[in-house]
From TrEMBL, chain B:
<feature type="region of interest" description="Disordered">
    <location>
        <begin position="1"/>
        <end position="22"/>
    </location>
</feature>
<dbReference type="InterPro" id="IPR027417">
    <property type="entry name" value="P-loop_NTPase"/>
</dbReference>
<keyword id="KW-0963">Cytoplasm</keyword>
<feature type="compositionally biased region" description="Basic and acidic residues">
    <location>
        <begin position="1"/>
        <end position="16"/>
    </location>
</feature>
<dbReference type="InterPro" id="IPR004400">
    <property type="entry name" value="UreG"/>
</dbReference>
<comment type="subunit">
    <text>Homodimer. UreD, UreF and UreG form a complex that acts as a GTP-hydrolysis-dependent molecular chaperone, activating the urease apoprotein by helping to assemble the nickel containing metallocenter of UreC. The UreE protein probably delivers the nickel.</text>
</comment>
<comment type="similarity">
    <text>Belongs to the SIMIBI class G3E GTPase family. UreG subfamily.</text>
</comment>
<feature type="domain" description="CobW/HypB/UreG nucleotide-binding">
    <location>
        <begin position="31"/>
        <end position="205"/>
    </location>
</feature>
<keyword id="KW-0996">Nickel insertion</keyword>
Automatic annotation (TrEMBL), chain C:
<keyword id="KW-0996">Nickel insertion</keyword>
<dbReference type="InterPro" id="IPR038277">
    <property type="entry name" value="UreF_sf"/>
</dbReference>
<dbReference type="InterPro" id="IPR002639">
    <property type="entry name" value="UreF"/>
</dbReference>
<protein>
    <recommendedName>
        <fullName>Urease accessory protein UreF</fullName>
    </recommendedName>
</protein>
<comment type="subunit">
    <text>UreD, UreF and UreG form a complex that acts as a GTP-hydrolysis-dependent molecular chaperone, activating the urease apoprotein by helping to assemble the nickel containing metallocenter of UreC. The UreE protein probably delivers the nickel.</text>
</comment>
<dbReference type="Pfam" id="PF01730">
    <property type="entry name" value="UreF"/>
</dbReference>
<comment type="similarity">
    <text>Belongs to the UreF family.</text>
</comment>
<keyword id="KW-0143">Chaperone</keyword>
<keyword id="KW-0963">Cytoplasm</keyword>
Amino acid sequence: MDGAGGCDGMTAPATGVSARARIRAVPDGRGGTALPSLAGGGPVALRRTRSADPAAARVTLVGAMSAPLGGDRIVIEARAEPGAALRVDGSAATLALPGRTAEPARYDVHLQVGEGGRLHWLPEPLISVRGSELRQHLSAELSPGARLVLRDEQVLGRAGEESGRLCTRLSVRRGGRPLLDQQLDFGPGAPGWDGGAVLGGHRAVGQLLVVGPERAQEPLPARVLGDSAVVTPLAGPGVLVTAVAPDALRLRRVLDSALTFTSW
Amino acid sequence: MHLDHSHTGHHPERHSASAALPDGSRRALRVGLGGPVGSGKTATVAALCRELRDRLSLAVVTNDIYTQEDAAFLLREAVLPPERIAAVETGACPHTAIRDDISANLEAIEDLETALLAKGAPLDVVLVESGGDNLTATFSKGLVDAQIFVIDVAGGDDIPRKGGPGVTTADLLVVNKTDLAPYVGSDLEGMARDAKQQRGELPVLFQSLRGEPGARPVAAWVREQFTAWTARAVATA
Amino acid sequence: MAGAAALLLLADGRFPAGGHAHSQGAEAAVKAGRVHDAATLEEFCRGRLHTAGLTAAALAAAAAAGHDPLALDEAADARTPSPALRRTARKLGRQLMRAARATWPGPELDELAAARPQGVHQPVVLGLAARSAGLGPLEAAQAAAYDNVSGPATAAVRLLSLDPFHATAVLARLTPETDEVARRAGTAGSGAVEDLPAASAPLLEITAEQHATWPVRLFAS
């Protein structure tokens, strides 16, 4: 860990795969969205898939990613230019696995949404496998008139398995100002992570973030969803759903139920 | 919303019960009501509100032990409109909130002062009701200008004799529920004698809210305090 | 250590800034059965220390280091998704401001009080109060980190009738980690505001909103 206890600040690992994938979405001039740049890299394969929304382009992260492995450094950049609508989802969960070295893996996602642009970032869960160590940073830069729906789910260990170490930071800036900054640190070596303040024995944790200018006009009231989830209006124009659950299935169920009344 | 009318860019320090509002005007008189659990503090506050609300601009701050029940009672009884009632939560230590760490109560009082001033109805008197506690609980002088200690005849007629800071030092001692004295075998004359012994010249009022004159004597005492408070404020202005 | 007495005063649970009425999540954890004895209290406090505690301590350190308190208040908002926790933080910030201006008066406290009469996040005020008392970022972080464990421990004594010696022993066992968190926060506080730690705890956010809806409770938060 670095001095501040963040997920950042690591030097680039000397071993393992270093890969960068890019998605860039622009308006196609006919009411739809074009993808002038769609480039996978390393273990990240990207496919343009059929979108239910005619205005949006849809990209699917394909395959059961057996990465990142310890020592890998994977970067995905997704940008929705002004007026573009992009939806990114996944076909299967991502597994964080132990590598040949003791070095942690790095997984960075940089999202950018321009004025009037829309981005749905809805990957499948990240599963922290026993013995793995992954540092993930999801960052988003939004224009004031941008819209974002972002889901981030973490599962601590496969069924019945101990968790690996998973440190993840979600930082969202809007118009250059901080909107949301959250860092989670779970698994062996993370102090107090399984106690009554942090996870309390739950093995799946997720966040669903919805940002849009509409949220400034009519902020939702905070809302408790059962025993282990809550919908919270942020100080800025966004709403965050935070949920913990015994497993990935029940986590998704809660986040999906929240999506019905949080979306713009 | 707030009271930063000074236009100097500096928010006047209001850490204690300074006698003036930030705009220089007189703030409300603050009267604390303390006493053991069940002695009738909330009922007395309700009765005082009914007696005084037509003559004075009133507000109440309650300090409940683990609920907002007292505030809810006052709201239900409609003794004052909701914007004149505030509840302070005390973290299981009601005496701390009125004596050792008065910050939450000062905030609540000032919020009421601010809100009512903004409505053009500046407050005359704020009644601060403590959570039911023991005989040692008294209000800080940083929080209230005068305090009433409420005991009752059913709690034992030896309470005045036992003394304690509430009984001996409160500006007014109220012995409540005198109508129950015959049933619980309390000796009112003895209580009066013991109280006199403990309190010297400090006043004691015996009260029953079930019948005449109800809370009127205590209300009259509060009005006297308010008159003196106003006179002091004028003299120092 | 220079200023040790001022630090003791600032970190004293009796410092009259309203903390006694707040359990910092302990009341909700007790009700959910997650805290029921000294061992579970210790894990609760440890988790809080390394999440909300680290974040608060770094904000306090940054304020003590002279960062713009309004930028720090914004950073604290981004680190506090729960509106109940934001309300509590600002309320306690306002109460601490009152106490700090009475104990260590200074122009920076006055200016912040004037700029934000409804209060700023408590750790920011704590850092500025430390600065006004002549203390540095590390001391501000120490006060904040200690507050994040001593508050729940005190509350647990009242909520569970826990043996006070056991609760205090929990705090004693946590002292090396409390110092370590304060050290990291103190260092981070001297860096850029956007790089401050953002460590968070899902259950603290979730249960804060649940607790805020309870009609019957001992603590305000």
